[in-house]
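TASK: fixed-backbone design
INPUT:
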């Protein structure tokens, strides 16, 4: 596997990782909104949300770095066999 192919695999893997993390972040934020006033530990829930956002930002930064390293991959997010049109 050459470097550009490896970067493509990394970008796709990061995309696949980011999707469930984004869903969890949304659920944690919803939990925080729904229970902010009657929750005994809103700070802990907020901390979870903040840390999930940090992870998503790191993933985004790595994906951007890979995209810049191999510009011709910038149009591809998923391999053709996984795309839904």
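OUTPUT:
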């Amino acid at each position: 596997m050459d470097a550009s192919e490896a970067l493509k695999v990394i970008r796709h893997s990061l995309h696949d990782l980011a999707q469930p993390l984004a869903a969890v972040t949304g659920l944690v934020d919803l939990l925080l909104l729904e229970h902010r006033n009657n929750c005994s530990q809103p700070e802990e829930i907020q901390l979870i949300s903040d840390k999930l956002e940090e992870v998503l930002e790191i993933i985004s930064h790595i994906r951007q770095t890979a995209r810049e390293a191999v510009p011709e991959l910038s149009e591809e997010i998923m391999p053709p066999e996984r795309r839904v049109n």
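COMMENT: The two ends are 28 Å apart (CA to CA).
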